[in-house]
Amino acid sequence: QVQLVESGGGLVQAGGSLRLSCAASGRTVSIYNMGWFRQAPGKEREFVAAIRWSGDNTLYADSVKDRFTISKNNARSTVYLQMSSLKPEDTAVYYCAAALGIRNGLLSGQYDYWGQGTQVTVSS
Question: Terminal CA-to-CA distance of the chain, rounded, Å?
Answer without folding.
Answer: 40
